[in-house]
Amino acid sequence: MFMVYHGGAKENEKGLLDFSYSVNPYKVPFMRDLLKVDFNSYPYCDSLENKIKERLKISQEVVIGAGITELLYMVSYALRKKDAMFMAHTYGEYERMADIFNMRKHYVESIDPDLTSFDIKNGIIFFANPNNPTGKFYHDIEILFETAEKYNSFIVLDEAFIDFVDYDNVNYPENVIVLRSFTKSFGLPGIRAGYAFGNENVIKKMKEFRMPWSLGSLGCKFIELALKNYYYLKNSIKKISQERKRIENITGLKTDANFFLADAGFKGLNEILKKSGILVRDCSSFGLPNAIRFSIKKKRENDILLKEIEKFHLKPLEGIVYEV
C-alpha cells in the first residue's frame, strides 16, 4: 500500500513558523459564531448542498464531505474503474486511492505535462488544478476534458486551491467531477469540510458511500458560516495575491496559487531551515528530493522566511512553463 506524507507541523514540530501547509493565513471573522454549535444532536446538514449551489452558482449536483480526501474516497468508489492515471509528481492520495480500490496505476512522468498525454481508456484521471506541488494553473484545462472524453474516461479534478487563482470561469462537462475545499480557503484545516459537483449519477453514488455524519456538527456549521462570509475570502485573497507578486519579484520563483515550489539543488534544506525555527514542505514525497514547497503567509512572516532562504539561491524547477 502506498503511504502518503502530508504537510503541516507534526507533534515534534510545534512552535515552528509553519510554511509547510498551504491555507489562508488570515483569521476568519466568525470564530465566535463557529463555537455556538449544538453538540447534543446528530448533524443532518444535507440542506447545505443546495445552499452551496445557490451561493456559488453551481448548476450541477453537489455533495459535501469531510475535506477533499474523503471526497476522493467517495468518488473512487462511485466510479469503480479498473485503471487510474495521474502525474508522477503530484498529491499522493491519488496513488493511494488507486491502491485501495485495486486500480491499475498509470503515470505521466512530466512535471508539466501536455494535457493530451492523459490517454487512458475507460479509467479515472486524477488531476489537480492548480497543480500541487508546482502551483501552476492550467488555463487550457479544456484540452484535458476533451482528451478524457475521447478515451471514455472520467476526470476527478482536484481544485483544492482554486480560490487563490485568478482565472476565468470554466465549463465542466459530464465526464468531470470537481472537488473543492472550504478549509484551505478559510484557513481552518483542522475542520474537514469540502464539496464536489458534477455528473448527477456519480454524485448520487458518492452520497451512498459517504460515512454518516462525516463532517460532524462543527464542519456543518463551518460551511454555513463560510457561505455567509465570502467577502472575507475576497479581501484576504487580494492580500495574498499582493504577497505572491512581491515574493516572485524578490526570488524569481513563480506560482499561480498560494505556495511556491523551489529547487534548492540539494537534499535536506527543510532540516536546515527547521533549525532556524521555520518549517517548509520537503518534496521527497512528490519524487522531488531537492525541492521544497512553502506557502504564502502574512508579510511579516514571509519576510522571516525570505531572509533565511536568500543565502541558498533557490531556483524555479526546470521544465515548468507558467502562463505570462
Detail the topology: elements first, then pairings:
Elements: E1 17-18, H1 31-34, H2 47-56, E2 61-65, H3 67-79, E3 83-87, H4 93-100, E4 104-108, E5 124-128, H5 142-150, E6 154-158, E7 176-181, E8 194-198, H6 200-209, H7 216-228, H8 230-251, E9 259-263, H9 269-274, E10 278-279, E11 281-282, E12 291-295, H10 299-309
Parallel strand pairs: 1-10, 3-4, 3-5, 5-6, 6-7
Antiparallel strand pairs: 2-8, 7-8, 9-12, 11-12
Helix pairs in contact: 2-7, 3-4, 3-6
In words, what does this structure look like?
The chain has helices at 31-34, 47-56, 67-79, 93-100, 142-150, 200-209, 216-228, 230-251, 269-274, 299-309, and strands at residues 17-18, 61-65, 83-87, 104-108, 124-128, 154-158, 176-181, 194-198, 259-263, 278-279, 281-282, 291-295. By secondary structure, it is α/β, with parallel strands linked by helices. The chain has two domains: 11-26 and 231-312, Aspartate Aminotransferase, domain 1 (Alpha-Beta Complex), CATH 3.90.1150; 31-228, 3-Layer(aba) Sandwich (Aspartate Aminotransferase, domain 2), CATH 3.40.640. Strand 11 and strand 12 (291-295) form a beta hairpin. Helix 2 runs parallel beside helix 7 (216-228), helix 3 packs parallel to helix 4 and helix 3 (67-79) packs across helix 6 (200-209). The longest helix has 22 residues, at 230-251.
* CATH first level of the largest domain: Alpha Beta
Main pleated sheet: 7 strands, mixed
Structure annotation, total helices:
10
CATH topology of the largest domain: Aspartate Aminotransferase, domain 2
CATH-scheme architecture of the largest domain: 3-Layer(aba) Sandwich
Structure classification: alpha/beta
SSE order, one letter for each helix or strand: EHHEHEHEEHEEEHHHEHEEEH
Strand order of the largest sheet: 2-8-7-6-5-3-4
Shape assignment = globular
The domain tally reads 2
Q: How helical, in percent, are the residues?
A: 25-40%
Q: Could you tell me the mean pLDDT? A: 92
Number of strands: 12
How much of the residues is beta strand, in percent? 15-25%
